[in-house]
């Protein structure tokens, strides 16, 4: 097993965790649109202080790779890569949606809820009625790859006969579409966390599934489009 630092900044949540041998040692997290650049490095220092460990004792750094916020992903990935270069440590890139799905599966398992016939659908808000989503089974195998979806009441009709468990900050705005569907279940209190990121990263570490620090880039899914500056008189 290994000592892994997890960095989660794909949405408005800024979360940092330190996990050793599958056990959470320390975590810091908060939510806010400007938390990432202000809080991230401080949170990293805090978790090492809380755990009484040194940076050089790390085995790997795991980072949430997206999809998600362009700015949040850029901050998280650049910080993780910088630490990997400085400390000569391995980098593990984890899917943001898979990390979210891990928490939902774990919650169902802890409640003793049968999920053999269930599909797990994480949803991250991508503005309006669009979400970043994917579909997983209860073993986190990919049933439908990550995509940007404009959600309608018919979005998951190809999975008729399956229980659809949906969750995430993009799922709440879809509840009215599915509230009459008996096979749809909304899970609340499922939010992104660096702890989940680390737990998924353990398998990657054991299997030697590392990212190339030099070439690793966030998975934005959609291209970033900057707004045009509104200079008075320029468009008049």
Strand content bin: 25-35%
CATH superfamily of the largest domain: ATPase, nucleotide binding domain
Rg (C-alpha, Å): 19 Å
Q: Percent range for helical residues?
A: 25-40%
CATH architectural label of the largest domain: 2-Layer Sandwich
Terminal CA distance reads: 63 Å
Q: Low-confidence parts, pLDDT < 50 over ≥5 residues?
A: 224-236
Strand order of the largest sheet: 3-2-1-4-5
The fold-level CATH name of the largest domain is Nucleotidyltransferase, domain 5
Please write the CATH class name of the largest domain: Alpha Beta
Order of helices and strands: EEEHEHEHEEEEHEH
Question: TL;DR?
Answer:
With 236 residues, this protein is an alpha/beta fold. It has helices at 35-51, 70-87, 96-110, 175-178, 194-206, and strands at residues 3-8, 13-20, 23-31, 60-64, 90-94, 118-125, 130-136, 142-150, 163-167, 184-187.
Q: What are the salient characteristics of this protein?
A:
236 residues; alpha/beta; Nucleotidyltransferase, domain 5; 2 domains; 5-stranded mixed sheet; 5 helices; 28% helix; 28% strand; globular
């Amino acid at each position: 097993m290994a000592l892994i630092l997890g960095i989660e900044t794909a949405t408005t949540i800024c979360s940092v965790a330190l996990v050793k041998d599958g056990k959470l040692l320390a975590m810091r997290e908060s939510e806010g649109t400007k938390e990432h650049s202000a809080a991230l490095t401080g949170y990293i220092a805090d978790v090492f202080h809380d755990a009484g460990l040194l940076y050089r004792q790390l085995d790997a750094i795991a980072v949430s790779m997206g999809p998600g916020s362009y700015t949040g992903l850029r901050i998280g990935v650049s910080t993780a890569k910088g630490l990997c270069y400085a400390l000569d440590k391995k980098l593990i890139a984890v899917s943001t949606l898979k990390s979210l799905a891990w928490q939902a599966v774990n919650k169902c398992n802890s409640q003793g809820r049968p999920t053999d016939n269930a599909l797990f659908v994480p949803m991250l808000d991508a503005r309006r009625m669009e979400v970043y989503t994917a579909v997983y089974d209860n073993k986190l195998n990919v049933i439908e790859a990550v995509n940007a979806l404009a959600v309608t009441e018919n979005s998951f009709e190809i999975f008729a006969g399956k229980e659809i468990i949906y969750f995430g900050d993009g799922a709440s705005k879809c509840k009215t579409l599915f509230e009459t569907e008996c096979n749809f279940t909304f899970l609340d209190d499922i939010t992104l966390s660096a702890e989940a990121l680390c737990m998924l990263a353990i398998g990657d570490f054991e299997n030697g599934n590392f990212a190339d620090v030099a070439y690793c880039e966030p998975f934005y899914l959609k291209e970033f489009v900057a707004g045009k500056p509104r200079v008075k008189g320029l468009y008049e």
